[in-house]
Design goal:
228 residues, alpha/beta, Spore Coat Polysaccharide Biosynthesis Protein SpsA, Chain A, 7 strands
Amino acid sequence: MKNGAGPRLVVAVPVKDLTRAKQRLTSVLSVAERGELAGAMLRDVLRALAAADLERVWVVTCDPAAAAIARSLGAEPVSETVNRGHTAAVALAQAEAARRGARVFLTVPGDVPCVTADELRQIVGGVREGAPVFVPSRSGLGTNGVALAPADAMPLTFGEPSFARHLETARAHGLTPRVLALPGLGLDVDAPEDLTALLAEPSATETRRLVSTWRARGGLTQISASGP
């Protein structure tokens, strides 16, 4: 924590058990590959957060491997006793951030490897008290980023169609939501078609290099050869 009575900003990154991650990719990736992919994506997200120079980054997880990745990249693990899902993990962090008096609460998922430091700074720079910021997923159904001021301005619930639900909830709490469409943050990797989209991106991320290597070795036969 920086100097002062409490953190000005808290970022929460909820992360499931890496070894059982990405079940929707079982048709194209092995268990070991899915774990490797999840770890690479988390590292890319944490690197972007570090480059954005945000004050305090929490990785909410019950997985020791994810906690180790967090510590290695300057983030702070926040332990869950069991994996209760994305919404519960964010709620835990949100409540703790509010308890510590954080003036801004930001949450992004751990599976958005193309997110950039500039996008993260845009979200933080855009939030105001009474005016939360929401970033939709590429499909427009999910919510891939939320910034609130203060931390407990409204409850958050994830899972499609969470984006429309969040806007409705914000208005119901007397807030004026702001929408930011950010292509890097919008690309969460959950399904085979998301791997195709990732390969089409010109990003220099660890995740893209990993997936490109698999493709070059003759793996991912069900994935389009899009991208350079």
